[in-house]
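User: Structure please.
Assistant: Input sequence and predicted structure:
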Amino acid sequence: MASILDLISRQVNSVAGGAKIPTDVKDQVLGGLSQSVLGSLTKTVTREGGVDQIRDLVSGKVSPEKSPVTDLAGKIFDKDILSKLNLGAAGGSLKNLVPMVMGSLSGIIKDKDGDGDIDFNDLILSLKGGGNGTSLFETAKNILGGLLGKN
């Protein structure tokens, strides 16, 4: 099974790969988008009712545009990435990628028919840190910090 971050990164590249992103910051934007999605999922899973919010998003019960999980990912992306890269109007259009990426997550979560790359319960366990005390969000944050030169 591929790691959650790898799966999210594939979805980001699939959805955002054709977006107009300045070449000099493309890796930072795509990495930041992956980090923001993962961060939102990781923070949501620890909140009361968070597992249900994630389930509603990946099952299509709630549209990505109306999901609090997507809203949080957008805020993280804006605060941690876009505001630091000073992309102006391009940054606003890049933020529109967040709901598209979040909507694409349903394709990687294994449904009752067995389609998908990862089982929902495995996703939740991984997001909670799998019992090792280090969340995927913290790991991804360290990786992104290296990309942005903040480590």
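Strands lie at 109-110, 118-119.
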